[in-house]
Write a structure and sequence with these properties.
By secondary structure, this protein is mostly helical. About 50% of the residues lie in helices and about 10% in strands. Keywords: Iron, Magnesium, Metal-binding, Nickel, Oxidoreductase, Ubiquinone.
Length: about 400
């Protein structure tokens, strides 16, 4: 049987964000896959160089609506290290608390998306209903349901009251009971297991070779978790397990996320009950000394890395972000091999991709290669899309106006 290459994306109903996958199949069986990113580039790293460190904190938080706290905390940690700031212990506990609430919110969201991709929409409804509890807790602690704005250079912007701690502990009890129900479904429901087991297989060796991170790597028995490998915030004082699974397939990644929810509840209870007294921030200087560093955190999707270089001014000279989806995208191509075309949506969803997190560069092809300033780059993008892919609405609008009997503009 001959092979044929099928393009999926950049715009496709199975994709929540623009990306392109060229999938070569023989019949229904996938032979090879190549992926192409770059459709969500927003120039945020370059924009950081033109803003102050405080402005960058809020800009980088908007890299992603799901792991916004991870990005802002990662950047704040880097700046604090360059500036030599000692963040108060209470602030570190609050960062840990928000980080784990963000992980629960992300994993429950993923569980619903995964249920939808395999035709189990009841699971989508249930898990997203329970996710509302987490969103309300995040709003209670930070004032926002997304883009929490809790971090600042030198600590956090808001303290936690005793009343908030009591409410959060009660809600965590409720969420834990619901999660036990989901774990029971995942481990006993035959149709759920049959649909995910063996799909999107990637061996432990390939996961290590391709540097898969987060639940994607831990689902192939790679025990890499920045919270344990290189503790930050208050994780060094927390008692929790790094969850792994040896299934090496989509089912294993689902089990890892569900069991990680239980560990997150455990961490949150410790953070709430053992939170030390004291201030929640220290005064940070407006200008940051020259120096550079790398900061890493364990975002819900995996390791998130920020490189920051200061030059002694109030603006960074360089900011570089490597989100977890960029680390996992090569593993997706390997996971696709020998699966059926119908498995593509759940295999892609299994890494919980965030392409807007990932896109940090563009590729200039042809004679236009070379260094380009931000203004010239913006104009190049406008001109290129007008010439190659942009939709020209002028003629259509004129035709519509004529049909309506309106005078053309």
């Amino acid at each position: 049987m001959g092979s044929v290459t099928i393009p999926i994306g950049p715009q496709h109903p199975a994709l929540k964000e623009p990306a392109n996958f060229s999938i070569t199949v023989a019949g229904e069986k996938i032979l090879h896959t190549s992926s192409r990113l770059g459709y969500n580039h927003r120039g945020m790293e370059k924009a950081c160089e033109q803003r102050t460190y405080i402005q960058d904190l809020y800009l980088l938080e908007r890299i992603c609506g799901i792991c916004s706290h991870s990005h802002s905390m990662c950047f704040a940690q880097a700046v604090e290290e360059i500036a030599g700031l000692n963040v108060p212990p209470r602030a570190l506990y609050i960062r840990t608390l928000i980080g784990e609430l963000e992980r629960i919110h992300s994993h429950l969201l993923w569980l619903g998306v995964a249920g939808h991709e395999i035709g189990f929409d009841t699971l989508l409804m249930y898990s997203w209903r329970d996710r509302e509890l987490v969103m309300d807790l995040l709003a209670m602690f930070s004032g926002n349901r997304v883009n929490y704005g809790i971090n600042t250079i030198g600590g956090v912007r808001r303290d936690v009251s005793d009343e908030q701690i009591v409410k959060a502990l009660n809600d965590i009890d409720a969420l834990e009971e619901r999660t036990k129900y989901y774990i029971d479904i995942a481990t006993t429901e035959p149709s759920f297991i049959a649909r995910l087991a063996g799909v999107g297989y990637i061996s432990h060796e390939d996961a290590v070779r391709l540097q898969a991170v987060g639940p994607t790597g831990r689902g192939s028995n790679v025990p890499h978790d920045m919270r344990a490998c290189d503790p930050y915030a208050a994780y060094g004082e927390m008692d929790f397990k790094v969850i792994t699974d040896s299934s090496c397939d989509v089912y294993g990644r689902a089990v890892v996320r569900l069991l990680e929810l239980m560990e997150s509840y455990r961490i949150i209870r410790q953070a709430l009950r053992e939170m030390p007294d004291g201030p929640v921030s220290v005064k940070a200087p407006r200008t940051i000394p020259a120096g550079d560093t790398v900061s890493r955190v364990e975002a819900p999707r995996g390791e998130d890395l920020h490189y920051v270089k200061g030059n002694g001014s109030d603006k960074p000279e360089r900011v570089k972000v490597r989100a977890s989806t960029l680390a996992n995208i090569q593993a997706v191509n390997k996971m696709m091999e020998n699966n059926n075309l119908a498995d593509v949506p759940i295999i892609i969803a299994a890494i919980d991709p965030c392409f807007s997190c990932t896109d940090r560069c563009i590729q200039l092809i042809g004679s236009e290669r070379g260094d380009m300033g931000l203004k010239a780059l913006r104009q190049h993008g406008i001109d290129w899309y007008r010439k190659n892919h942009g939709i020209e609405f002028g003629a259509l609008a004129k035709k519509l106006q004529m049909m309506r009997g309106e005078r053309a503009l």
